[in-house]
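Repro case for the chain-ordering regression, as requested:
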Amino acid sequence: MKLVRDVLDKQLIDRENCEMGRVSGLIMHVGEKSQPRITHIVIGGETLWMRIHPMLGRISKRLARWWGPKRDGPVRIPWSRVETVGRDIKLDVRARETGAIDWEIWIARHIIEHIPGGGEKGEEEE
Amino acid sequence: MSKALQIALGIITSIGGFLEIGSVVTAAQAGAAFGYQLLWAILLGVLCLIFLVEMSGRLAAVSKHTIVDAMRERFGFPFFSIVLLGIVLVAFLVLVAELGGIGLSLQILTGIGFPWWAIPVSFGVWALMWKGTFSLIENGASLLGLFTIAFVVAAVKLHPDGASTAHGLLPTFPGEDKAKYGFTAVSILGASISPYLMYFYSSGAIEDEWDESYIPINRFIATFGMSFGGLLSMAVLVAAALALQPKGIDVDKFEQAALLMTTALPKWGFYLFGIAMLFACLGAALEISLAIAYFFAQGLGWNWSENLQPSKDARFSFVYTIIIFLAAIPLVMGVDPIKVTLMGMALTAATLPLAIVPFLFLMNDPIYLGEHRNGWISNSVVAIVILISFVLAVVSIPLQVLGS
Amino acid sequence: MILKRPLVVPLLVIAACKSPTPAEQMDSVISWLGTAGMVGDAWLRHTTPDKYTRQTLELSHDTLLQIADDLLKSPPSGIDTASLDSVLTRSRGRVAQMARLVEAKDAPGFSTQLDSLRADQKIVKRFSDGIESRQ
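-- result from build under test --
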């Protein structure tokens, strides 16, 4: 598998066919005597912006503290949860439980649902 | 819906959705200043657009990716962020121009100044996006845009000379005002070859769930839809050449463009102009707002669809809400939409390489298109477009300094 | 290519500040007198509504005033500046009067002013041709 071509920046879909962002980065384990292997997929603005410049990553992290859902670092999905890698990457997870769509939920509940016609109140977070 | 009906609807909506403030103002300026001489610029722009739109539809139908999806995956986030910045900034300027176009149309029809219309117009556009579906926006707005066929009626009624019109389809050098001629040509090309149209079209193909069986339909719609649309632009140029140029009138303000059809259609010409521009700019404003929201959502992997309730694709809905609100601000402050239009067209021309170079790579990538990759004709046309757009990017800046 | 894009905005600002030549200014005068004439014709034929006609005439007047001010600050050489100023002032006055006559819905009075405006347009055209031939 070619990681940059087949994995990085690919669309992630959960088991309910919800779009849960794109692969921002990968965490790999490099052992002394073993082949490098992917351990986690990373989804998150900070990781994404760091790919352009580390300073942008730090700014993104600082801004996220002031506004939006509170998180400790970017979302990490274990590679073991990957079902298929094709046009998109299908994951055996529920997007809500991973934190990958925290921003989506936050904007829906704090902004969109307060505007008439925006839609019903969402489910309570588990 | 049968395939024949889909083709018909696709062509009609392409025609109805073709004209907007940029193409009308630039064509009117060209006709008023240079007669038929710049018809070739419209022809070239439309030819390029046919190929680019066909490719956009083919990419979506075969790969089930929009252009933005494919660009993010193929080129990575750092490159994508540069394209995002460039394209979105220019598209935003064009959105301001289109909202201004709606305001100016209402101004000439009611006498109430366009800054007063900025907020109600922006709210109206936003409300259509908020409550509407993709089908309503694509088809409804474009069908209303068919009022722009009035330009063809006006042009024909003015009895254009066939030989001179045909001569105008071949590039010529002007005797005088070379800088202004060049800048006007650049603006026409920038108005015709709009990247946001490609992004909107490929997103629409995904919204409409196109697959490989739609490739022939796509070809038909792109060819005939854009060709007939281009005829509308040419009609505006011809009408300006015959109605305004003999009186020495240059089109610097919207009020001057409003006189385009008054000679040919004395009873209804003025009102048809106002109504046609109102609907044309409305359709364009909806398209651009959607295109910008698609760009963010697809590029960053969010949930997106115009057919979903806003809370189900919250970030997507939030983006178009914010940009429409922001686009109203310059208009409330009285910034002239015509000046914004001309700046937007020149900047569109300047940023075309940013949109088209990656697109060429995608259209030749077997991972996305398999056996439906570009042939040598499509590649040649796109390569020529890239060359022209690169020359435009280099030339349009000093031409803007000399010719505006 | 990337470098050129940051240059666009400051160059466009410079462009906005570039002064037009006297020939270009005269072209603008002809354009706006033509606009006033065309909208006047259209109003008399009941093609355009009162509000739009009046607003366009007022816009023509204001634009002509601005161009004339700029033109006469540094007038082109070899031109009878006093005569040029006189015809520009007169034609502007006619356009302003036409706007008032639209409000009063005085079509005969409007028609008279429009005929006089056409005569002024011919004089302005001769000045414009003179300036162009000197460039």
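Ordering looks correct now. The domain at 20-134 of chain C is CATH 1.20.120 (Four Helix Bundle (Hemerythrin (Met), subunit A)).
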